Amino acid sequence: MGRVAVLVDAGYLFKAGGQLVAHRNVGREEMVLDPEAAVDQLGAVAQEITGRELLRVYWYDAAPRNSATQHREVAEIHDLKLRLGHLNSAGQQKGVDALIITDMMTLARNRACDDFVLVSGDADLVAGVLQAQEHGVRVHLLGITPARQNQAPTLRYEADTCHEWNVRAVGALLRLATPDELAERKKRPSRRRSDRVASPDGAVAADDTADGEDLPEQALRSVAESVARDLSDAERASVGATDRPGLVPGPIDRKLLGTARKTLGAVLSEHDKRALRHSLYETCIAAP
């Protein structure tokens, strides 16, 4: 029968879905999501499109460093895997596209599923679509009405099929917050940059390095695993030969750091570099 994985760019869902439901551009803080209803609908749509058994839903979102608890409700849903990037000081998502592409490549390479249902509109994901297709995985793009206006044409061209959610489907899982809910949200305390607490949930863009924030450990680990797969047996052996995980042969280290900067679009802190090298070491010594 085969399996299908659903990959959801939550930023796209909130932006396009909010505009459809509210008939205007609305901020994310004005919207309320029913995550269980979203997962149920996504699973049902994926099975309807592909006829495959659901592997799981991958939910990609971005969060300020002090808001990881806001995603706890989503993370606890069965058959859902939460992936977190970071919001920079300008409110822009960072690291989310890299997580989506990495998962697409890994799932396709490992033959974990036969189809993807991708909920997004970002042209940067075309690379992931093409990589998945090269491994024999079909990619079905699920957009929100009017999808042709909120999805990149190149992404639609490369997908195997394109589908669209109407206002009735979106309204069953996303709605405008009530005045009481908005007032309650405004009461929640926020931290200044200087008060932020270190955690693995955030990523930082190149223009945010002054904040001293580290990239998400999961994203760094994914980059290290990707680089390790491209190394020769001899190169992997050279990485794993040392008893100090922070020591990586120069040419391999330059490849590792360069790949991370390009993939994640960020300047690496010293903490990031140590985490990358440690992840590469662990991956190499675990390789058969």
Give a description of the structure:
By secondary structure, this protein is of the alpha/beta class. It folds into 2 domains: 179 residues, Rossmann fold; 73 residues, no CATH class. The protein is 47% helix and 18% strand. It is built from 13 helices and 9 strands. The strands form 2 sheets. It has a 7-stranded mixed β-sheet with strand order 5-4-3-1-6-7-8. A two-stranded antiparallel ribbon has the order 2-9. Helix 3 links the parallel strand 3 and strand 4. Helix 4 packs parallel to helix 5. It is globular. 39% of the residues are buried. About 10% of the residues have low confidence.
Write the layout of secondary structure elements.
Elements: E1 3-9, H1 10-22, E2 31-33, H2 35-50, E3 53-63, H3 72-75, E4 80-87, E5 93-94, H4 96-109, E6 115-119, H5 126-134, E7 138-144, H6 147-150, H7 153-158, E8 161-165, H8 167-171, E9 174-176, H9 179-187, H10 217-230, H11 233-240, H12 250-264, H13 270-286
Parallel strand pairs: 1-3, 1-6, 3-4, 6-7, 7-8
Antiparallel strand pairs: 2-9, 4-5
